[in-house]
Write a structure and sequence with these properties.
The chain has about 270 residues and is α/β, with parallel strands linked by helices. It has 11 helices and 8 strands. An 8-stranded mixed sheet has the order 3-2-1-4-5-6-7-8, with helices on both faces. It is elongated.
Length: about 270
């Protein structure tokens, strides 16, 4: 019997998780329940056969795996709605919420249920997420159950919980950083002669190729850079100009700035 999964919060990331699970072929529409106050936004999932509801408590009662995907400011109210519906013996609670540690969620839940912290990114919708997971000593094997679900949606990594803030910035926010670089590269491509759609296709596929090289070969970025930089060549000229204007420093400073903002989200 397949596990029934309740995704509480059908916003961007909640819908992305649902869409990725459906695309995996391992989770059927009948195995999913997605909640949101305004069900109009879940109409596309409903048409695929997914159960949708605005009643979080009822969704919890029908599931064995609960995945909370709401904004940090909504956490306490949502948990207040579902607390009495949770079965600590039969259920597992996973959550995708920045800033909240496992201990924080346990304290709000007031129920001794296994809790797993999860941080994917929006590429989960096409099963290409980098998802980091963490928990505490009270998980009772729940971590492996949650990882099995998210393995359907890309790559996963179990990390120490103290690194989850950093994982949020590098993995989840990182999607936006790379998108911005691809957008900038596309704009440069337009200026040197390509139409917008051509420039974006070239920039996006080049970014995909660069990432695939590192993932498949395990090589260092600088090793791959050296392969395309020749003495007095155009590649090194462009790289040096980018660095002159602070490319690497800007990326590093941006990541650190985002990291410092996490604690303000509760």
């Amino acid at each position: 019997m397949k596990e029934k999964i309740a995704i509480l919060g059908g916003g961007n990331i909640g819908k992305a998780i649902a869409g990725g699970l459906l695309a995996s072929g391992k989770t059927g529409a009948s195995d999913l329940i997605v909640t949101r106050r305004n069900l109009v936004h879940l109409e596309d999932l409903k048409k695929q056969g997914v159960s949708v509801t605005s009643d979080n408590a009822e969704a919890v009662k029908a599931a064995s795996m609960i995945i909370i995907c709401v904004q940090p400011t909504q956490v306490k109210d949502l948990i207040g709605e579902i607390r009495e519906s949770i079965d600590p013996v039969k259920q597992v609670v996973a959550y995708v919420i920045a800033a909240y540690e496992v201990a924080d969620i346990r304290e709000i839940l007031e129920v001794p249920v296994p809790v797993v912290r999860v941080m994917p990114n929006t590429a989960i919708a096409i099963r290409e997420s980098m998802t980091c997971l963490a928990t505490d000593d009270g998980s009772n094997g729940a971590l492996e159950k949650v990882q099995e679900i998210f393995n359907q949606l890309g790559s996963t990594m179990i990390i120490r919980e103290k690194l989850m803030g950093a994982a949020t910035i590098l993995g989840a926010c990182g999607i936006a950083y790379f998108m911005r670089f691809i957008r900038a590269a596309s704009q440069g491509g337009i200026q040197v002669g390509f139409h917008a759609d051509e420039a974006q296709a070239i920039a996006a596929q080049t970014a995909r190729g660069a990432a695939s090289l590192l993932l498949q070969t395990g090589s260092h970025p600088e090793d791959e850079i050296d392969k395309v930089t020749t003495p007095r060549g155009c590649t090194i000229a462009g790289l040096n100009e980018m660095e002159h204007f602070g490319l690497s420093s800007a990326v590093i400073k941006g990541i650190i700035t985002s990291y410092n903002e996490i604690e303000k989200l509760k």
